[in-house]
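> @MW can you paste both from yesterday?
MW: sure, first one:
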Amino acid sequence: MVSTTRVEATFYFFISGRRIPTPRERVLVERYSETVDQPLPLIGQSPVEEDPTTIIHDLGEVEDRLKEECGVVGVYSPEEDVAVSAFFGLFALQHRGQESAGIAVSDGEKVRMHKDMGLVNQVFTPEVLATLPGRMAVGHTRYSTTGASLLRNAQPIYCQSLVGEIAVAHNGNLINTAELRSEMEAEGEHFDSTSDSEILARILVRNFDKGPEAAVAEVMRRCKGAFSVTVLTPKMIIGFRDPNGIRPLITGRLGDGFIVASESCAFGPLGASIERELHPGEMVIIDDSGIRYAQGHKNEGEAMCLFEFIYFARPDSMMQGTSLYGARERMGAQLAAEHPCEADIVVPVPDSGIPAALGYAEATGIPFREGMMKSRYIHRTFIQPDQRMRELGVRMKLTPLVDHLKGKRVVLVDDSIVRGTTTKQIVKLLFDSGAAEVHVRITAPPIKFPCFYGIDMASKGELASAKMDVEALCKHVGATTLGFLSVEGAQRAVRGLDAGFCNACFTGKYPIAVPEGLRKNAFEAPPKIGEMATVSSGQLSLLDAE
């Protein structure tokens, strides 16, 4: 049953915006209530008032976590406005980016766009959505990769060209930016920014007169790295993945229309059904004639990011034909086989550790118990935490259940260790709560190498497993014992050892050759990522004025 109170609360926010929800919007609200395990978006909330120098402080900084770059969505409906559908799709992808959000729409003639800092439900009010008419839309939600969160980093990026207005939203990172920039400047290009966003957009736009297939093929030919992209023109939506398929992109049916998104979890709230995932090097084109697929570049060898399965993607998403929740349960079971121990309870680090902890508990027969409660509402704020709050660390987000922990031998299951700071704090929290032993079990293999393909992580010199072996790291975090899932075990849990994954952060084997200069500098500083999501202004002028 749908909660009448929750649905009516959302209707209130529509009405408070002086607009009655349409029947389609009412259906979306009801489906959202049934399928998404998040508070309903209060879309009448005022948008963030921000000047370009405003800083959003991330209270999640106390957690030592990897961060995905962003989530993208594209929606087409032949007979109705889709801004609200794009809104609900983006909200379902909120876990992939919580810094900024944007939606661009087309009514067949003109592309309109709105983007701002903040969560999806903060950026889009009923008044804003009412200014975005159109049957096609692309949307974007982004994570910050630096200490400052700036409006100029928000997407989609709006471009003007000879073929009309274009909006581009993408997820990933190019590794040949310097080379491309030099080549294109030699060809007479003049750049407005230093971002690889502009490079990708210029290549796309300069070739669009040859047709969308040729334009995307040229992007794939020249751009090296990881990228999943959605593009909106006045007449069509285009989605495409890099030739190694490192970042996910999936299509679906939405009534008489279509949807493309980073994850299938965006489909449920809209009542959409999965069609299929794009293959590496493939594109999808959606317009009034329907949906068609084309290969823009040969498959260079599938290398989807293994961390999508371990942590990044939402557990109710489907990838590579498997449920991520089920894959994570199998990872927990495999972890139990590789690193058994005698214990009284299995405790997850909420929320990402829950499926694996269930799998570990089922495989061993050790009871599953929650040992900590997570505050899901302490994350990003304009209020700067003081030093005392920062010193509290994970205690700001995790409250121990002392009665569950006191005197118990605990298996603590988490998804990863990056620098080790968060794990160390959590282990101490459990011991301070009376745990007799804390056996840490991690479903990701040891992270020893930096990512060059769009994941926000530490430099190699800061990665705990790059500096310490398992025994030393166990001592560092204060655990009784420490065990990591093997690379083979993680891949087996997903879909077999022969599957193609990018596991470079574990093995150092990069599926796309990384320039030596980038690798040489990665020990002292994190790889320069996030540039695809950075431009110096909200609009790129891609063609010189006549």
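MW: second:
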Amino acid sequence: MDTYKGSGVSPGIGLGKFYVINNEIDFSIPKKVSFKESQSKLDMRYEQLISELEKENREDESKVLDAYRLLINDPEIVEMVDEDQNLIEVFQVFKDISDQMLSFEDEYFKQRAEDIISLGKEIIFTMQDIVIDKNLNEDVIIFADDLTPNDTSSIDLTKVKGFVVSNAGPTSHAVIVAKNLGIPCVINFDITKIDSDFNKSVVLDGDTGEIFLDPTSDVLKKVEEGLNKINKLRESYNQDSIKDLGIELRANIGSSEEINAFSDDHIKSVGLFRSEFVYIDRSSKPTLKEQIEINNELNTKFSNTIVFRTLDIGGDKQVPYLNLPKEENPFLGVRGIRYSLDEKDLFREQIISILSSDLIEKVKIMFPMVSILDDFLDAKKIVIDESNKLNVNPPPLGIMVETPSVALNTDQYIQHVDFFSIGTNDLIQYTYAADRGLSTLNKYQDPLDVSVLRLISNVIDTGLKNDIEVSVCGDMASDKDSSIILYLLGLRVFSIAPSQGPNIINSLIHAKENLSHIKKEEILSSTDSQSLRKLIS
């Protein structure tokens, strides 16, 4: 048995035969169809696929294909292609666009670069008149460098028990398909490490990222135990457990795909709506009408509270049509509420889109990157002004606590805010003065270090003393160990990655039943995170 490891992005355990999809372009195959005709054929194929997916209520996948249709008909892309160009030159057009997106630091653009490459491949295959047909007669684990919509649409997905994709990000098409259908998925693994002639079974763990080739009987036994454990976790994940814990679970949502893919009967609210995708995923500023439509779409999916984070963007997310400064250190520059207050027309329009949408009865507005009280008060004034103009009541207004200057001085804000939501990812980054995007600095990203926990505890204590809601919307709320510590510190509102609901509830049940003797003082006086983890194990 050989064991490998990638990054798990869609949870679960899968068992199936090793199956490779090779969708690399063979440029020696001649062009048989013109670019224009291929463009039309692919557009029609996507339209048909969208119709089929919508019939199966797979709206998130159909939205991806809608985006592909927009790309394939984008006048700027079409103008770059000349009918006299050979296949290599046509593909180079898509590669150049992809390379430009890859040059941006933002992860979102890097993942859209993958979509451009996938689209370029599908154009070339269509120009070569290649028809992909993958008949599966047994359960398989699929291995591929990347997967295009044409790949996934030509596979019997009921036979697919797992995906291993080398070149994919958390919101790539293949990952969206996997999450939507509950298929385990692992990315960031070089599939060339495995002999393509390998013809035996594979076990895939979508939680840990582990890949087992030709698994032993012991591994197969663990697979069975793992599946039983998953079923047990789901049994405990119910409204009675949530009520008994005295907590509320909310979802973190950051794209139209995530809105459409969401299907958890136990989560009725959004604790963090990341609005950046509305602006990033396009070549021109969204209209007020478009923003309102997205807000209304969000409203139909969730019946309770929606915490809407205003535009959290800065120099690390270069958007061509926005007046974003290029900075030496964009994470410490004009971003979040600082940018919104510099670009008040853009900010006011976003606020108007919220106040004019169906969200108005359930929305709370949260400002990111607040580090001084004046920034919050200036933003609050704009919301009140626009509310008065529209003759609506201003919604509750709060702060995303992600800077130590706020976490240490929450008393300064209690007369002005309606809620606090702790963004632990950036709070940790700014506490350690270490870029969380650099893997070389991982040791400076420990969420259970006492310096971070004292900041968080201070915010929770302020909320409890003054009857102000406190939630956590960062990754700590979705982490089993961290969620236990947060619960013991008094947190009762957890905004999580939706797929983590069963894990978090079971962790908190363990905390309530077995760890209630652990006092806050013991946690905050711990000498290191390892001893703390041992304490709660």
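> thanks! The chain has a mean pLDDT of 87.
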